[in-house]
From TrEMBL:
GO cellular component: cytoplasm
Start and end residues of each PEP-utilising enzyme C-terminal domain: 258-546
SUPFAM superfamilies documented for this protein: Enzyme I of the PEP:sugar phosphotransferase system HPr-binding (sub)domain, Phosphoenolpyruvate/pyruvate domain, Phosphohistidine domain
Native source organism of the sequence: Luteibacter pinisoli
Gene it is expressed from: ptsP
Similarity-based family: Belongs to the PEP-utilizing enzyme family.
UniProt: Mg(2+) binding residues: 437, 461
Designated name of the protein: Phosphoenolpyruvate-protein phosphotransferase
Ranges in a coiled coil: 43-70
Subcellular location: Cytoplasm
Top-level taxonomy: Bacteria, Pseudomonadati, Pseudomonadota, Gammaproteobacteria, Lysobacterales
Recorded GO MF terms: kinase activity; metal ion binding; phosphoenolpyruvate-protein phosphotransferase activity
Pfam families: PEP-utilisers_N (PF05524), PEP-utilizers (PF00391), PEP-utilizers_C (PF02896)
Length: 585
């Protein structure tokens, strides 16, 4: 029977395919009884998973330093102790060897038994420790399924399928996209998550916050995602399919109209020049950036190189990847951002620290790079070598204070010295820029500008940290809102400071490619926008309709607004007035 669910479009478009249910946070418990001959191998499988979980905890422990070691270390130790608990282990063994339960069933039964014990406790602290049981059993379950279900999960997406899940990690999304998956529907997640950014890169329609998707869609159901309007239809009717065909025709026509703009200059209606750069994660983004007439790459997210493969990429592998982007851009500037691992981006090499209590506020971006200077040095060397093939700039993510930039410059100098001693060719200069995505850097931008040759404003993170709202949490939609006046004033402050210092400033968060924000950013004095290349023509098209000088005059009035609705209304009024003038002209 046809039914329809609503969600938030995170990557536009429509797709028709078969649902593939993926539930990464749930493990399938196999309740079948084991044959006698299966008992031995199942015990061995269980012990291997427990050993694996122990090793993971040891590794995690060894990576902690300083205050983090003190705070998180106790939790890890408690988990390790649980894994060595004789009663727990004996109980598991007995359930498999005597009861003939599978390892997953035994784990679940032990978990339920212990959870009931903790639940019955009166002491609220002890009660809360029940969570440890869940986490420890979850870790063993995950290890248990690593060889089988992880592989299955990786293969979960096949040509023509639409993934339905609670959330999708960026690395999983990248691997499934390569297998011909057509779209994604998640029950949680947000438009500003890294997975959503990747979905836009892969041109895959994606809906987030589709509440009942896991409960009401079944594996293999035919589903139609409409990520233009924010719905997904299960068992679409002939009428729905007609809507899909209509959208395909319209999208093709709009594509042809915009294609004419690919070689056009980027000018506002009153003739102001604006530079449009591309955000690139994949080789295909570079091709598209060229095809759409980008002025260069404004943000190359180098961490995706680390997310796509097992282990750390070597200096030569990194060099080859960066050089190919530089060559691909044919002499246009390429901004390579150094590793921004951490938070929701965990690499398979295990560099990003796992299990942080508050990872978005944890060791991510430059904080992680400076913790591993040898690994960071390898990246800086690779960037320097690639910079001999065309204009390259290096951009540093998550800068909080000037000291971090000083340290980056010191390491760059060291990388130069090493390469020079080894007889490598070196670029004459390599501009170093700071991403402004931490409020402290935005407020203290005047100091940051002392050591930065250019700035790139990362509004995806700047919004999450300024508004104290997780960019991945769809429940905070009303708060994580880039139209909030306080946030807009902060961006305007950064742009003004860079302009005063006569240093280039671009904006590379998702709002740069959203035509709802084009007028607002122009009013703030922004002249360099960096976005996914798929959005470039729409933004260029939008700019041709806007009067830059009039918008700049209206800026103080816009930013004096008290609420986001007031900002929106004032902006609409300013733009409507412009449209009226254009109509009269
Ligand atoms: C940002 O934070 O706005 C940004 C561009 O970086 P990322 O989305 O990769 O965190
Ligand atoms: Mg960021």
């Amino acid at each position: 029977m046809r039914h329809q669910l609503t969600g938030t479009p995170a990557s536009r478009g429509m797709a028709l395919g078969r649902a593939r249910m993926v539930q990464p946070s749930l493990f399938t418990v196999d309740m079948r009884m084991l044959e006698d001959a299966e008992v031995g191998p199942e015990i061995a499988r269980l012990h291997k998973a427990i050993d694996h979980a122990r090793a993971e905890l040891r590794e995690l422990r060894s990576k902690l330093h300083g205050a983090l070691a003190r705070e998180v270390g106790d939790f890890i130790d408690a988990h390790s102790l649980l894994l060595d608990d004789e009663e727990l282990l004996r109980g598991l063994d007995e359930l498999v060897s005597v009861g003939h339960y599978t390892a997953s069933a035994a784990l679940k039964m032990q978990r339920d038994r212990l959870a009931a014990v903790f639940d019955a406790m009166n002491d609220p602290y002890l009660k809360s420790r029940g969570e440890d049981i869940d986490q420890v059993i979850g870790r063993v379950m995950s290890a248990l399924f690593q060889s089988s279900s992880r592989e299955e999960r990786k293969l979960a997406a096949r040509v023509g399928e639409i993934i339905v899940s609670d959330t999708v990690a960026p690395a999983d999304l990248a691997s499934m996209a390569g297998q011909g998956m057509l779209g994604v529907v998640t029950t949680a997640g947000s438009v500003y998550s890294h997975s959503a950014i990747l979905a836009r890169s892969f041109n895959l329609p994606m809906l987030v916050g589709t509440k009942d998707a896991l409960a009401t869609i079944n594996d293999g159901d035919l589903v139609l995602i409409d990520a233009e309007n924010g719905d997904v239809v299960v068992h679409p009717t002939a009428q729905d399919l007609a809507r899909y065909r209509q959208w395909q025709r319209q999208a093709a026509a709009e594509g042809r109209r915009l294609a004419a703009l690919a070689s056009a200059p980027t000018l506002t209606r009153d003739g102001a020049h604006v530079r449009l750069f591309a955000n690139a994660e994949l080789a295909g983004d570079v091709t598209l950036a060229r095809a759409r007439g980008a002025d260069g790459v404004g943000l190359y997210r180098s961490e995706f190189l680390f997310l796509r493969q097992r282990g750390l990429p070597s200096e030569d592998e990194q060099f080859a990847a960066y050089r190919d982007v530089v060559l691909g851009m044919g002499g246009l500037p390429v901004t390579i951002r150094t590793l921004d691992l951490g938070a929701d981006k965990a690499d398979s090499a295990g560099l990003a620290i796992r299990g942080e209590e508050n990872p978005a506020l944890g060791v991510r971006g430059i904080r992680l790079s400076l913790r591993y200077p040898d690994i960071f040095l390898v990246q800086l060397r690779a960037i320097l070598r690639a910079a001999c093939y065309g204009p390259v700039r290096v951009l540093v993510p998550m800068i909080t204070h000037l000291g971090e930039l000083t340290e980056v410059r010191r390491l760059l100098k060291k990388a130069r010295e090493q390469l020079s001693l080894e007889g490598h060719e070196l670029p004459e200069r390599l501009d170093v820029g700071a991403m402004i995505e931490v409020p402290a850097a935005a407020i203290g931008v005047a100091s940051i500008l002392q050591k930065a040759d250019f700035l790139a404003i990362g509004t995806n993170d700047l919004a999450q940290y300024t508004l104290a709202a997780d960019r991945n949490n769809d429940a905070l939609e009303g708060i994580y809102d880039p139209l909030q006046p306080a946030f807009l004033r902060l961006i305007a402050h950064v742009i003004a400071a860079a302009r005063r210092a006569k240093k280039p400033v671009s904006l590379c968060g998702e709002i740069a490619g959203d035509i709802q924000f084009t007028a607002l950013l122009l009013a703030m004095g922004l002249e360099e926008f960096s976005m996914h290349p798929g959005q470039l023509l729409q933004v260029r098209d939008r700019l041709t309709t806007l009067d830059c000088a009039a918008l700049r005059r209206a800026a103080p009035h816009l930013f004096r607004a008290h609420t986001r609705d007031e900002v929106e209304q004032r902006l609409l009024a300013v733009v409507a007035k412009q449209d009226g003038c254009a109509g009269a002209a």
